[in-house]
Design a protein that fits this description.
With 483 residues, this protein is α/β, with parallel strands linked by helices. The chain has helices spanning 8-11, 81-84, 87-92, 103-130, 146-153, 243-256, 271-284, 298-303, 305-309, 316-325, 340-347, 367-374, 393-398, 429-437, 454-466, and strands at residues 16-20, 32-36, 41-44, 73-75, 98-101, 156-158, 165-166, 171-177, 185-193, 196-202, 225-229, 262-265, 292-296, 334-336, 353-357, 381-384, 403-406, 409-412, 416-419, 446-450, 472-473, 480-482. The protein binds zinc ion (ZN).
Length: 483
């Protein structure tokens, strides 16, 4: 968009356009655009869309609804793929601006994106082999390659929490702690013209209070507009115990009482570290039974050291533990599966053990092998430790399906299937409402709900309205608002 030139008054007319390009009436694919009248375009997040992908032949994230070259800058809230996973594609299609994120996000996102590029290359090879030569299939072309990831990394500028960054004479933004993942931020964009400032706050993914390792989410300053996630807008976490008691209970029930194996599917970054840290705390208190604990996740292995590198950003409990013990994750019976010898140890281990592996929703990754090996064993327990989107294998197991298919094999489910919310890294309904209402001052003009399924959003909106907050909108994909 060009600057208006027909009159000084019109040039000074002030507006900012907000467009919801992703995570609109669904959870994944976060991508919002702020655009000034002068055509300065700020993209907030650029994530992969998993939900639409299930319904379409080609990947819906492949084509952007705008020219990537027209984006001035990108602000990345955190490293998770549903927020960052389309960045290399944006760069390969012409985006040349800076990518702003916190230092921890910059370190972690590199590994997540390289891993994503690897998975895509593998999937594309499989599709190519399936079809005869010459047939063109969109699925056989990865969205991006490792080279695109490394190119994207060159565009990153890191910025610490609470340090305002001035983009031009009208715009600045600041990161606040989102308490969701190491380095995760909420972001406030301030737009000033004629001495009048509008504040637009994006929660990013909002953590829950009293998480393991990361701090509680932080309140942003007073806002004119709030864009809030609503993953758990529809329900409150069922948490009866603290994380230590919860894990100890499952270990005793499965590994001690019946000599079985406890299989925990967990996201490689965030969830896996929270679980290992909890086990370490139990071990240091002398409460952990003497059983082996395996972590089979190359991505977890690569990203775990960042928790100690950035330990100053962790919560007080974790910092105190680190200063007393000198480590967060190291205990005697823990093995990160790295070498063929470790794999052999795990494969031939006939004693009770705990295995933590990715992916959290059991949709891919090494966990599939472990679930395949244990799902038919009545002495094993599969403990789902995170959110499982509809249609994923994790969700199917939780729904009580008795027959499942893994890696082309039909299997009957005989193991125990159970779940825990204690490691959830998202604020639940109660906390989301509390957080949203905390911005309900005379300054607040509108609240937009994103990053949730339609039912969660509708419930959330109804509850907000019962609490006398009526200025809530559930935007559609592509919908624009003048702020
Ligand atoms: Zn996230």
């Amino acid at each position: 968009m060009k600057e208006f030139t027909i009159g000084r008054l019109i040039t000074f007319a002030r507006f900012m356009k907000l467009t919801f390009w992703g995570a609109a009436r669904q959870v994944t694919g976060s991508m919002y655009m702020l655009e000034t009248q002068k055509g300065y375009r700020v993209l907030i997040d650029c994530g992969l869309d998993y939900e639409q992908q299930r319904n379409l032949h080609d990947n819906p994230s492949r084509h952007f609804p705008f020219s990537p070259a027209s984006i001035s800058i990108l602000i990345l809230t955190h490293a998770h793929i549903d927020h960052s996973g389309n960045i290399p594609n944006l760069v390969s299609q012409g985006f040349r601006g800076h990518i702003f994120c916190t230092p921890a996000t910059a370190d972690i996102v590199k590994h997540l994106l390289l891993d994503s590029a690897n998975i895509q290359a593998g999937d594309a090879r499989k599709v190519k082999n399936r079809y005869k030569k010459g047939r063109k299939d969109p699925e056989a072309i990865p969205l991006f390659t490792q080279k695109d990831v490394m190119k994207s990394m060159e565009q990153i500028i890191t910025l610490d929490f609470h340090k305002p960054f001035r983009l031009n004479d009208a715009l600045q933004f600041t990161f606040y702690e989102a308490g969701h993942l190491l380095g995760a931020a909420s972001v406030v964009v301030e737009f000033t013209e004629n001495g009048h400032t509008q504040s637009i706050g994006f929660t990013g993914d909002l953590g829950r209070n009293n998480s393991k390792l990361v701090k509680n989410p932080e309140q942003m300053p007073e806002l004119n507009y709030l864009i809030t996630e609503s993953t758990y807008g529809g329900r409150t976490h069922k948490v009866q115990h603290d994380a230590e008691s919860e894990l100890l209970y499952h270990i005793k029930e499965t590994c001690v009482k019946i000599n079985g194996k406890l299989v925990i599917p967990a996201f490689s970054v965030g969830r896996t570290q929270a679980i290992i840290y909890t086990l370490n705390r139990l071990d240091k208190q002398g409460l952990l039974p003497r059983i082996k604990v395996f972590v089979d996740s190359p991505l977890a292995l690569r990203t775990t050291p960042y928790y100690e590198q950035y330990q100053h950003q962790l919560n007080e409990e974790a910092r105190t533990f680190y200063s007393r013990q000198g480590d967060l994750f190291d205990f005697e019976n823990l093995t990160f599966v790295q070498t063929p010898a470790d794999e052999k140890d795990l494969f031939y281990c006939h004693e009770p053990y705990v295995i933590i592996s990715a992916a959290g929703m059991v949709e891919g990754g090494r966990i599939q092998e472990h679930v395949k090996n244990h799902v038919q064993n009545p002495f094993s327990t599969i403990l789902i430790a995170g959110y499982c989107a509809e249609g994923t294998l994790g969700a199917r197991l939780l729904s009580g399906q008795k027959n499942i298919k893994i890696k082309g094999k039909e299997l009957r489910v005989y193991s125990q299937i159970t779940a825990t919310d204690v490691f959830s890294s998202h604020a639940d309904q109660e906390q989301l409402i509390q957080n949203t209402l905390s911005y309900n001052s005379s300054k607040l003009k509108q609240v937009f709900l994103t990053h949730g399924d339609e039912q969660s959003m509708t419930t959330f909106k109804t509850l907000l309205s019962q609490k006398h907050l009526d200025k809530t909108t559930i935007p559609n994909k592509g919908e624009e608002f003048m702020l």
